[in-house]
């Protein structure tokens, strides 16, 4: 934790299968990065590899609508026919501690978060190296039915067109290189003057005036 720095929100978006869950897992395993993962709520059915409360909080449609109506969500969107949303309370708590939070959300959610939280947001769009490779990854992951994969590939073409709205773009061909790119972005963003100035100002004062 760095009490002198404002916490930031790091958003990773990509079409389904481009690798944002994999990159998110790598980031969360690196404890020294001290990132807190935002656990979204979703009305989608749980995959066999997923744990309720860790990857998502799986909720009924009625509960999702209630959270929306009561302002419990920082942002929400309908993606591939399911509701997804970011619970607001944990975000406020983490940012207040000057810590950083990682979001795996789609372009609609990223736009809402940028709108609400402005300069505290750093957004990265992850592109697949090709549509052929994207299909291969979705098939290799073997978590979705053939129909779902087709739906996601069709949606991917539209989602990819949103890349210009992000601060950074990474092509996830070689995973280790893509991960290093994400680390470089985090390192640089953490040193931005507007994020560190509250903590650095007293240091500079002592440096200059003894
Ligand atoms: N707006 C929004 N999008 C989300 C949220 N959680 C997940 N998503 C997005 O929903 C899409 C589908 O996610 P998921 O069902 O996990 O499938 P995957 O992308 O194939 O792993 C992805 O683009 C996610 O980034 C959320 O809380 N809000
Ligand atoms: N650079 C890469 N090279 C090869 N396979 C990858 C790479 N990145 C991710 N994958 C694999 O592709 C599949 C989809 O990745 P995943 O992280 O689940 O994507 P997303 O969360 O964007 O839907 C997974 O099986 C993952 O192991």
TrEMBL record:
E.C. number: 2.7.4.8
Catalytic activity: GMP + ATP = GDP + ADP
Keyword terms, alphabetized: ATP-binding, Cytoplasm, Kinase, Nucleotide-binding, Transferase
The keyword Cell membrane is assigned to this record: no
Top-rank lineage group of the source organism: Bacteria
UniProt GO cellular component terms: cytosol
Enzyme superclass (EC): transferase
GO MF annotation list: ATP binding; GMP kinase activity
Sequence ranges assigned to domain Guanylate kinase-like in this UniProt record: 7-187
Cellular localisation: Cytoplasm
InterPro entries: GK/Ca_channel_bsu, Guanylate_kin-like_dom, Guanylate_kinase, Guanylate_kinase_CS, P-loop_NTPase
Keyword ATP-binding: yes
Residues annotated to bind ATP: 14-21
Protein family: Belongs to the guanylate kinase family.
Protein's job: Essential for recycling GMP and indirectly, cGMP.
Entry protein name: Guanylate kinase
Source organism of this protein record: Roseiarcus fermentans
């Amino acid at each position: 934790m760095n009490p002198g720095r404002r916490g930031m929100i790091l958003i990773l978006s990509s079409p389904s299968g481009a690798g944002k869950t994999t990159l998110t897992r790598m980031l969360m395993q690196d404890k020294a990065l001290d990132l807190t993962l935002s656990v979204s709520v979703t009305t989608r059915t749980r995959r066999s590899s997923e744990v309720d409360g860790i990857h998502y909080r799986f909720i009924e449609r009625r509960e999702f609508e209630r959270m929306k109506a009561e302002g419990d969500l920082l942002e929400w969107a309908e993606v591939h026919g399911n509701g997804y949303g970011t619970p607001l309370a944990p975000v406020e708590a983490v940012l207040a501690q000057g810590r950083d939070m990682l979001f795996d959300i789609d372009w609609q959610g990223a736009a809402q978060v940028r709108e609400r939280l402005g300069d505290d947001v750093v957004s990265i769009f992850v592109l697949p190296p090709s549509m052929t490779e994207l299909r291969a990854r979705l098939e290799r992951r073997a978590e979705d039915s053939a129909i779902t994969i087709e739906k996601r590939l069709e949606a991917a073409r539209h989602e990819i067109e949103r890349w210009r709205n992000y601060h950074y773009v990474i092509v996830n061909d070689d995973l280790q290189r893509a991960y290093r790119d994400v680390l470089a972005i985090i390192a640089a963003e953490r040193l931005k003057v507007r994020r560190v100035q509250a903590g650095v100002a007293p240091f500079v004062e002592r440096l200059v005036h003894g």
